[in-house]
């Protein structure tokens, strides 16, 4: 579990683990899996709220629950930077982790694949594989997106690649 | 779609919609609180917990503490601080506040304790007490971990209510237990019949209790017994009285004591204090005096006046009868001599007799009538005289001289005489004192010590009466032993003491004498004769001593006269012979020119007249020396012997022996004289003689003309008569020659035979031829006669004897002519 800061690790351990190994093609099993995903997400969200660390909003974009959209944000220098968030559940889920996309930041940083998919650390994949099928969407957000935001947003802000929306507004004016 | 899934979706939605809680950091909060205080929105003390994470108001703290105390009943302030998590300082402050506001609480030794706690404790104690019947407070205190004083203050108000028992001397007892112990005390106290120290009784009772209770029994304090005992005495359950708080004398004992004393005293009319001591009365005199005011307290015994009357009668009999009495023999056996003395002094008859000098109390218990004592003294004195006189007369002079000298030396000698009578008794006791004195005097006296020591021994032998000699010897020996290791100075002192002692009759001797004179003492069967005889002897001794001193004084004056006489005699003799010698010496001047004759004449003179004179002088001086000085009397004896043997011609050794008699200075001079005697010159002898004479206080008269003439005249007369009476032809010649010298030269010549011829030849010019021839013829005839006599042997050769006789006859025939020669001239 090395490679993550202690806060992340402690949070991760508190997210309930999932048990059903089913992908979007597995029908009823997927539904069961989806239920577990929700429970994990609820626990994670309430945990974040109680720690005054709420940083995303997501919801299923289709009834099958294979596409998810929402927003995520990061506070840097008392300014809140908010980005759109979207990802699909891969067909081989849960063996394959979902690829989280931040389309607004596409082309603004090296740590991103084409289409706005964030680059994860080398540690992520082995850990995910090891914990399949116990890790779900909540874990992916916690382990993948949260550290990426914490690492990349300050750099992007400082390099001027992204600007606060207030600043953007003033610049437009 | 699955209902559940929808539900979960809604829930998730809701969870995301929910407002997230806002978190402030600790630092922010502290700053906020500070800000509030600055703004005075919080206007009271705000305390914080030890962890530093909580603020607490004093009211809250107090509430929490009260709750805690209520819960536990007894809680330490430190524990409170721990449990509440507030600094001890605040807790203590609040604890004081709480306790002062609530009377049912107390703060003791950092603990807050409520009354209800004590109540429960008291109940517990009561339960235990009822089980064990007694509990030590110390035990309780240890158990509860509080001071025993606190326990007492807490328990006292609860005694009898919550705790059913009695608190006594640090112990809690149940009434039943108290009752039991009280019964034990009562029993023990009633059982005592003799005075007893109560603490001893309590300790035995404690032992008993411990046995009853077994090993677990708590030791009962003596004070508990004591308080029970005091209660019993007060109630009159036990009889007696308590002294000094601990000494209990039961009434039954006091009664018995009183009765036994009463019965003894009424039966014997005396009682010894020892008896009372045995009966346990510490101050018998006070006790007896208060009980029998008519009685008389003596030293060890208390007597009824009737006893005195009895003794009075006996003593009166003895005094009137001119006898003596031992009051101890009249009194009961338990009387001591001191008692006897005291009771005697109370007897009326004895008092009267003592006042009128009719009786004498000696040795504390013996009463002697004056008549008896006088009689005995007279007899003793006679006894002393009888055996003392012989020894006294022979050595009296010497002895007395000695004493006389002592008296001269200083007053202390006389005082030492009287002292010695006392010191003699104690002898050994005084030894140390003497040694001390002697050490001080050592420096001074050591010079005389030797002579002192030498001087003593003859005194001892001579003056000590033969009977007591044994004792004296013994005494001397022991004293010598005592002295042996002490310094010579001490010896001197001791000797002196002894000497003083010796000059008076010893105690032992007196005792023997008294026993001899008054056999009564033995017949009476007095066990310890010493007891009576010693004081009696001591009584007589000073008296005898005085009488002896008187006699000594008389003897001394006699002796002084005798001495004077002796000296006068000596002086006279000395004068006579010295004058003679001077006379003869004059004649020697005639022969000064003839050396050899002069020597012979000098020697002759020295051999004859001078030697005789010196003998007399030295002998007499020797006598005097013996008397006056400290020299031994052995010498004196020797001198006497010399005199008896009539050794006028002393050889040198004897004279030297004699000289030892003299003291140093004198002896040197005497030796000089004797040596001068050996020399050939008369002049040297005379000078030496003058020196010694001066030394010994004698005078040598010088020959003056007038004296010479009278002397010469008398000498001539003497010679003339001798010549006329002389029958021996040989001895006639020197006398005639001397006479002729007087007639011719008016000088007295003493010539030895050898010098006669020279003397005769000197006369040649002065005499007529006829007379001279007669003289010469006679002289030659005498010489031949003498040579014949000296040549004669015992062979009885007739020829020589015949010739001798014929010569003698010839001489005899010549004698008238010679006599006529002298006598005629003398008459002319």
Automatic annotation (TrEMBL), chain A:
This is Ubiquitin-fold modifier-conjugating enzyme 1. It comes from Nyssa sinensis. PANTHER family: UBIQUITIN-FOLD MODIFIER-CONJUGATING ENZYME 1. One of its GO terms (biological process) is protein K69-linked ufmylation. Keywords: Ubl conjugation pathway. The active site is at residue 119. It comes from the Eukaryota. Belongs to the ubiquitin-conjugating enzyme family. UFC1 subfamily. The keyword Transcription regulation does not apply. The keyword tRNA processing does not apply. GO terms for cellular component: cytoplasm. E2-like enzyme which forms an intermediate with UFM1 via a thioester linkage. Coiled coil: none annotated. One of its GO terms (molecular function) is UFM1 conjugating enzyme activity.
TrEMBL record, chain B:
Residues 488-498 have a biased composition (Basic and acidic residues). Residues 4-288 form the E3 UFM1-protein ligase 1-like N-terminal domain. Residues 409-498 are annotated as: Disordered. One of its GO terms (molecular function) is UFM1 ligase activity. The keyword Transferase applies. Residues 553-587 form a coiled coil. Keywords: Coiled coil, Transferase, Ubl conjugation pathway. Residues 413-430, 445-454 have a biased composition (Low complexity). GO terms for biological process: protein K69-linked ufmylation; regulation of proteasomal ubiquitin-dependent protein catabolic process; response to endoplasmic reticulum stress. Pfam families: E3_UFM1_ligase, UFL1, UFL1_C, WHD_UFL1_5th. The keyword Transferase applies. GO terms for cellular component: endoplasmic reticulum membrane. InterPro entries: Ufl1, Ufl1-like_C, Ufl1_dom, Ufl1_N. Residues 708-821 form the E3 UFM1-protein ligase-like C-terminal domain. Residues 567-703 form the E3 UFM1-protein ligase 1-like domain. This is E3 UFM1-protein ligase 1 homolog. It comes from Nyssa sinensis. The lineage of its organism: Eukaryota, Viridiplantae, Streptophyta, Embryophyta, Tracheophyta.
């Amino acid at each position: 579990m090395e490679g993550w800061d202690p806060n992340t690790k402690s949070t991760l351990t508190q997210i309930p683990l999932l048990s059903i190994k089913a992908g979007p093609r597995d029908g009823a099993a997927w539904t069961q899996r989806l239920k577990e995903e929700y429970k994990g997400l609820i626990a994670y969200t309430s945990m974040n709220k109680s720690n005054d660390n709420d940083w995303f909003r997501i919801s299923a974009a289709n009834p099958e629950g294979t596409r998810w959209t929402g927003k995520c944000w990061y506070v840097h220098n008392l300014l809140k930077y908010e980005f759109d968030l979207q990802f699909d559940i891969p067909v081989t889920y849960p063996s394959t982790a979902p690829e989280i996309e931040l389309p607004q930041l596409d082309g603004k940083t090296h740590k991103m694949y084409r289409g706005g998919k964030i680059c994860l650390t080398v540690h992520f994949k082995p850990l995910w594989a090891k914990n399949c099928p116990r890790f779900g969407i909540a874990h992916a957000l916690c382990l993948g997106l949260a550290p990426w935001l914490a690492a990349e947003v300050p750099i992007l802000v400082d390099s001027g690649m992204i600007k606060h929306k207030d600043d953007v507004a003033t610049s437009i004016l | 779609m699955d209902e559940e899934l929808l539900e979960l979706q809604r829930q998730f939605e809701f969870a995301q919609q929910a407002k997230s809680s806002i978190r402030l950091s600790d630092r922010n909060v502290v700053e906020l609180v500070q800000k509030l205080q600055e703004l005075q929105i919080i206007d009271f003390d705000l305390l914080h917990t030890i962890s530093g994470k909580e603020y607490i108001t004093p009211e809250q703290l107090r509430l929490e503490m009260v709750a805690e105390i209520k819960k536990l009943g007894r809680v330490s302030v430190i524990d409170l601080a721990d449990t509440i998590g507030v600094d001890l300082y605040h807790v203590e402050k609040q604890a004081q506040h709480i306790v002062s506001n609530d009377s049912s609480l107390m703060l003791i030794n950092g603990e807050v304790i409520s009354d209800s706690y004590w109540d429960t404790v008291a109940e517990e104690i009561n339960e235990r007490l009822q089980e064990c019947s007694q509990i030590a407070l110390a035990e309780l205190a240890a158990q509860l971990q509080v001071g025993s004083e606190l326990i007492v203050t807490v328990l006292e108000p609860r005694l009898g209510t919550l705790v059913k028992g009695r608190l006594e001397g640090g112990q809690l007892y149940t009434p039943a237990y108290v009752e039991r112990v009280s019964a034990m005390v009562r029993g023990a106290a009633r059982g005592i019949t003799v005075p007893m120290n109560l603490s001893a009784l309590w300790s035995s009772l404690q032992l008993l209790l411990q046995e009853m209770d077994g090993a677990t029994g708590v030791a009962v304090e003596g004070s508990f017994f004591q308080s029970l005992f005091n209660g019993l005495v007060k109630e009159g359950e036990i009889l007696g009285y308590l002294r000094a708080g601990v000494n209990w004398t039961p009434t039954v004992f006091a009664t018995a004591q009183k009765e036994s004393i009463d019965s003894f005293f009424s039966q014997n009319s005396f009682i010894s204090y020892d008896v009372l001591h045995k009966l346990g009365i510490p101050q018998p005199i006070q006790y007896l005096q208060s009980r029998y005011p008519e009685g008389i307290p003596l030293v060890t015994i208390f007597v009824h006046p009737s006893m005195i009357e009895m003794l009075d009668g006996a003593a009166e009999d003895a005094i009137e009868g001119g006898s003596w009495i031992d009051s101890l023999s009249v009194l009961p056996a338990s009387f001591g001599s001191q008692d006897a003395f005291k009771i005697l002094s109370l007897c009326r008859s004895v008092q009267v007799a003592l006042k009128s000098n009719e009786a004498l109390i000696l040795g504390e218990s013996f009463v002697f009538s004056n008549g008896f004592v006088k009689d005995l003294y007279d007899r003793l004195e006679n006894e002393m005289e009888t055996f003392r006189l012989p020894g006294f007369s022979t050595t009296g002079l010497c002895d007395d001289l000695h004493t006389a000298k002592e008296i001269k030396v200083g007053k202390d000698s006389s005082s030492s005489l009287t002292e010695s009578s006392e010191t003699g008794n104690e002898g050994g006791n005084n030894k140390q004192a003497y040694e001390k004195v002697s050490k001080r005097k050592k420096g001074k006296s050591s010079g005389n010590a030797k002579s002192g020591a030498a001087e003593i021994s003859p005194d001892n032998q001579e003056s000590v009466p033969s009977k007591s000699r044994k004792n004296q010897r013994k005494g001397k020996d022991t004293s010598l032993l005592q002295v042996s290791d002490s310094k010579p100075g001490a010896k001197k002192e001791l000797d002196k003491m002894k000497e003083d002692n010796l000059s008076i009759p010893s105690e032992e001797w007196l005792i023997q004498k008294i026993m001899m004179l008054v056999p009564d003492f033995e017949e009476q069967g007095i066990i310890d004769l010493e007891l009576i005889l010693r004081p009696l002897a001591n009584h007589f001794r000073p008296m005898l001593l005085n009488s002896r001193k008187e006699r000594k004084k008389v003897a001394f004056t006699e002796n002084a006269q005798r001495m004077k006489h002796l000296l006068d005699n000596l002086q006279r003799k000395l004068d006579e012979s010295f004058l003679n010698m001077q006379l003869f010496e004059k004649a020697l001047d005639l022969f000064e020119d003839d050396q050899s004759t002069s020597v012979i004449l000098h020697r002759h003179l020295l051999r004859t007249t001078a030697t005789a004179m010196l003998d007399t002088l030295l002998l007499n001086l020797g006598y005097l020396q013996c008397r006056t000085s400290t020299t031994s009397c052995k010498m004196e004896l020797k001198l006497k012997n010399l005199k008896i043997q009539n050794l006028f011609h002393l050889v040198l050794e004897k004279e030297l022996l004699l000289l030892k008699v003299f003291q140093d200075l004198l002896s040197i001079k005497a030796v000089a004289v004797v040596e001068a005697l050996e020399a050939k010159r008369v002049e040297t002898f005379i000078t030496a003689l003058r020196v010694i004479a001066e030394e010994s206080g004698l005078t040598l008269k010088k020959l003056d003309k007038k004296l010479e003439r009278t002397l010469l005249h008398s000498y001539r007369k003497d010679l003339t008569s001798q010549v006329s009476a002389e029958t021996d032809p040989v001895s006639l010649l020197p006398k005639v020659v001397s006479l002729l010298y007087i007639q011719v030269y008016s000088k007295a010549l003493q010539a030895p035979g050898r010098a006669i011829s020279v003397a005769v030849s000197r006369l040649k010019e002065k005499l007529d031829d006829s007379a001279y021839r007669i003289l010469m013829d006679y002289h030659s005839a005498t010489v031949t006669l003498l040579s014949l006599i000296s040549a004669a042997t015992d062979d009885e050769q007739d020829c020589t004897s015949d010739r001798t006789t014929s010569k003698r006859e010839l001489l005899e025939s010549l004698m008238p002519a010679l006599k006529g020669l002298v006598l005629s001239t003398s008459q002319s």
